[in-house]
Amino acid sequence: MRRSLPPVASKVSDTLIARGHHGVILTQANPTHTAAEAAEALGVAVGAITKSLVFLLDDDPVLLLVSGAHQVNLDSTGRRLDGTLTRAPAAMVRQVTGQPVGGVAPLGHPTNLPTFIDNALSQHQELWAAGGHPNTIFRTTFGELVRITAGLAIDVD
């Protein structure tokens, strides 16, 4: 029963289940605003936090799933992706994901965004990602994240 989940998190849960994940999304008492805060609340390394960040690759929105220990270098990551990478405006993030900034999940969006996954996440046995709302999270692994998002693993620096 999901009465306590916000509707957007329920959609993420349904998408997780449809893609072979257990679909369990946890609700935290308070939203966390940074990867460091999320890691502290969960008692895990900051690198095990998966940040879901929307960028524009040239003019097209893309999703980068990045280790909480990394910042995206727009120039080098853009070159790696064969284009110019810029941060998407908050309104566009909301439009293309259907989820609020600060709670964007790696999936469950109105359309499938091209997704690139930070190879650094593979260093952690267990990963945590937002569940579509600022105070929701779910547990996964690197291999499962690649599978459920149909993402391409890349080096992000």
In short:
The protein is an alpha/beta fold. The chain has helices at residues 7-18, 35-42, 74-80, 90-97, 142-149; strands spanning 26-27, 49-57, 60-67, 85-87, 115-118, 127-130, 136-140, 152-154. Strands 1, 2, 3, 4, 5, 6, 7 and 8 form an eight-stranded mixed β-sheet that branches.
Task: Write up this protein.
- The chain is globular.
- It is built from five helices and eight strands.
- 27% of the residues lie in helices and 24% in strands.
- Strands 1, 2, 3, 4, 5, 6, 7 and 8 form an eight-stranded mixed beta sheet that branches.
- By secondary structure, the protein is α/β, with parallel strands linked by helices.
- It has helices at residues 7-18, 35-42, 74-80, 90-97, 142-149, and strands at 26-27, 49-57, 60-67, 85-87, 115-118, 127-130, 136-140, 152-154.
- 39% of the residues are buried.
Topology overview:
Blueprint: H1 7-18, E1 26-27, H2 35-42, E2 49-57, E3 60-67, H3 74-80, E4 85-87, H4 90-97, E5 115-118, E6 127-130, E7 136-140, H5 142-149, E8 152-154
Parallel strand pairs: 2-6, 3-5, 5-8
Antiparallel strand pairs: 1-7, 2-3, 2-4, 6-7
Outline = globular
SSE pattern, N- to C-terminal:
HEHEEHEHEEEHE
Strand % is 15-25%
Distance between the termini: 40 Å
The largest pleated sheet is described as:
8 strands, mixed
